[in-house]
Amino acid sequence: MPDKSAPDKPWVMRTYAGHSSAAESNALYRKNLAKGQTGLSVAFDLPTQTGYDPDHELSRGEVGKVGVPIPHLGSMRRLFQDIPLGEMNTSMTINATAMWLLAMYQVAAEEQGVDAAELAGTTQNDIIKEYLSRGTYVFPPESSLRLTTDMIAYTVSSIPKWNPLNICSYHLQEAGATPTQELAYALTTAIAVLDSVRDSGQVPPEEFERVVGRISFFVNAGVRFIEEMCKMRAFGALWDEITRERYGVTDPKMRRLRYGVQVNSLGLTEAQPENNVQRIVLEMLGVTLSKDARARAVQLPAWNEALGLPRPWDQQWSLRLQQVLAFESDLLEYDDIFEGSVVIEAKVAELVEGAKAEIDRVQAMGGAVAAVESGYMKQALVSSHAERRARIESGEMKVVGVNSYTSTEPSPLTADLDGAIMASDPQAEANAVADVQQWRSQRDQAAVDAALERLAAEAKTTTNLMAATLDAVRAGATVGEWSHTLRGVFGEYRAPTGVAGVVGVAEAGAELTAVREKVARTGEELGGRLRFLVGKPGLDGHSNGAEQVAVRARDAGFEVVYQGIRLTPSQIVAAAVAEDVHVVGLSILSGSHMELVPEVQKGLLEAGLDNVPVIVGGIIPDSDARRLEAEGIAAVFTPKDFGMTDIMDRVADEVRKANGLS
Fold first, then answer.
1. Is there a contact between 90 and 625 (Cβ–Cβ < 8 Å)?
2. Known catalytic residue: 536?
3. Confidence of residue 29 (pLDDT cuts 50, 70, 90)
4. According to the model, what pLDDT value does residue 504 have?
5. Active site residue: 19, 72, 385, 536, which one?
6. Residue 409 and residue 190: Cα distance in Å, rounded?
7. What is the tens place of the pLDDT at every residue in 437-485?
8. Residue 600: alpha-carbon gap to chain centroid
9. For residue 122, what are the contacts with CB-CB under 8 A and spacing of at least 6?
């Protein structure tokens, strides 16, 4: 018999979605809600995330690709048209520009007649992990922390149901974090933010418990679902201890770990992608089986995300996985089924001990911000990721369909590869550019100028910037103008890449030794050491692949030039000329490859570097890969090409071919 007469209420079920335009995304949201989705999770495009309007040079190729462009209040109105925001729980994956997006959401809700105090939802707003993994930061760490602090102080008094900070360890795991690192770096981020809010004096001491109680976490769940479940139990224990001992929180409800989950996309494979379905289910079990550490909200990727942009049907499939577990199984009818397990308790204790040691190490450096600025945390993640890749390449870590059990029947799911994913609207960028230009032409420019002058003036003081930001939204400013104004005060920032000093392969086997010999021989024939420029054009900040290519290229004997993320094609060409490189490797995961790669290629030819081959890697559909190669790109690599040493061998061959060497 079940433990209880009525089952527990299920978690909030979301699908991370948004693309092309506010109107198309609005239609998708309403369709998903009609299918039983119980919350919204908004994906914003990279220009919106990094503070650029659609018509900015760096936005080229990125508008509407990995999310929806929302540069101004008119777009926010359209995004939520006919969706009652007073009844909705909305999660917004936004960090550097979180204050701007929350202000627009509040004003859009007020226009619907909804008081801000009634709004429920979450802004991710975890800037620390952006420096470490996802790359959508804008301002330096201290200034970014100030914006987060201001938002938290504002929401506690004005939007009390809102989660102003969703500390996001999800992307740390994507960047290579072990469970211990994921726990430690997320919790040191929480400590940095809570210390900042406490020390700002904006929240009275007697209300500080409410700040702690509104902090939530966004966590990754990998396929090792027992370890992931234990990680979540360890997370809860550590959070309870930190909030009790460091911040004196006495109410157990305010100390409870409140977390949502997006299960792991790093482990999704392009090879035999149908295997991703059972991976997703196992990952979901890791954060739902244990009642004492059950996620409050779950969103699942689609089986085909390693191929390209999922279709609505693919997202529906992932929603149905959640619904079958919640409503057909008896999972919610029982209390915690792992209580008293000596195996689980031992693993949890091991993770707690390891995480505490790493937390102490980071705190001794001066905390999370100092560990970002020194490059310590980034280098630790790059190193962990390199170790993971080496284990996959050696076969020590088995990935079904990739490095083991690779023989397969033809898949009906991918018989038509181009039809197995959704193509982004080719007109999305032009439409967004026209829209933002029309918006600017129809507003009161004097009001915008005055609002931005106020924002700049208050940014130079300790005044909470939320009021000035709301003023700018109502005046009709854009995300690019808000960010540009604050860039003028705070400056810009380039985070450490973490590549320096990392050794990808400690001992070279026969294959890597052979590649090193080929690279060295080719360099001698060309009169010096081979130089490999690794470039990240556009706004795609997912740098994990580029970092691993840089590390392995150095292991293979190349001199590596890697300047980090967010470069224009012209900047990459200028670096290729200045560094006199022999090969250029471009990494793009945002879908902007067909716009940005040809620009780099054209720039190299105009600079006279016609003997410098261009290599491309990323989430690139097969038809696009064929087009790029037909247009002269030397090689295209996608997630199925997991052998880094094989890639380096091919790169050396392309350098030889481009220079007429046998």
1. no
2. yes
3. confident
4. 60
5. 536
6. 48
7. 999 999 999 999 999 999 999 999 999 999 999 999 999 999 999 999 9
8. 25
9. 90, 91, 92, 162, 163, 166, 216, 260
128 and 368 Cβ atoms separated by less than 8 Å? yes
Active site residue 593: no
Q: What is the pLDDT of residue 619?
A: 86
Report pLDDT for 487. 97
User: Would you call 259 a catalytic residue per the annotation?
Assistant: no
Of the residues 129, 171, 378, 582, only one is catalytic, namely 171
The answer to whether 167 and 212 have CB atoms below 8 angstroms apart is: no
- Pick the catalytic residue from 45, 540, 624, 649: 540
Question: Of the candidates 41, 158, 17, 30, which has an alpha carbon nearest to the alpha carbon of residue 89?
Answer: 41
Share of the chain above pLDDT 70, in %: 98
Q: What does residue 324 show for φ and ψ, rounded to 5 degrees?
A: -65, -45
Least confident of 252-256, 265-269, 332-336: 265-269
Write down the residue that tokens 């198309």 correspond to.
24
Angle at 146 between CA 144 and CA 150, to 5 degrees: 120
User: 166: which strand partners?
Assistant: 216
- List the 40-43 sheet strands across, edge first: 16-17, 40-43, 89-93, 120-123, 162-163
Instruction: Read off the pLDDT of each residue in 560-576 and give the average, rounded to a whole number.
Output: 92
Q: Quote the CA–CA distance of 255 and 240 in Å, as a whole number.
A: 5
Ranges 46-50, 163-167, 210-214, 306-310: which has the least confidence: 306-310
Q: Are 170 and 299 in contact (CB under 8 A)?
A: no
At residue 330, the pLDDT reads: 94
Q: How high is the pLDDT of residue 545?
A: 86
Phi then psi dihedrals of residue 97, to 5 deg: -105, 25
Report the pLDDT averaged over residues 301-324: 89
Q: How confident is the model at residue 507 (pLDDT cuts 50, 70, 90)?
A: low
56 is catalytic: no
Catalytic residue (choose from 129, 385, 542, 582)? 542
Q: Which of 427, 341, 586, 346 is nearest to 69 (CA)?
A: 427
Give residue for tokens 């109410």. Answer: 251
User: pTM of the prediction?
Assistant: 0.88
Report in angstroms the alpha-carbon separations of 389 from 30, 273, 308: 40, 19, 22
Q: Residue written as tokens 């948004």? A: 18
Q: Say whether 418 is catalytic.
A: no
448's tokens: 């915008």
d(CA 578, CA 502): 25
- 18: tokens are 């948004």
Q: CA geometry: angle at 284 spanning 319 and 7, to 5°?
A: 80
The secondary structure of 495-507 as a DSSP string is: ---S-TT--S-SS
Query: Residue 199 has which token pair?
Result: 């020390």
Residue 8 contacts residue 291 (beta carbons within 8 Å): yes
> What whole-number distance in Å separates Cα of residue 104 and Cα of residue 161?
17
Most confident of 46-50, 303-307, 592-596: 46-50
CA atoms within 13 A on the CB side of 122: 25
Residue 419 has pLDDT above 60, yes or no: yes
Q: How far is CA 132 from the centre of its chain?
A: 10
pLDDT of 553 higher than 60: yes
Which of 16, 105, 137, 259 is flagged as catalytic? 16
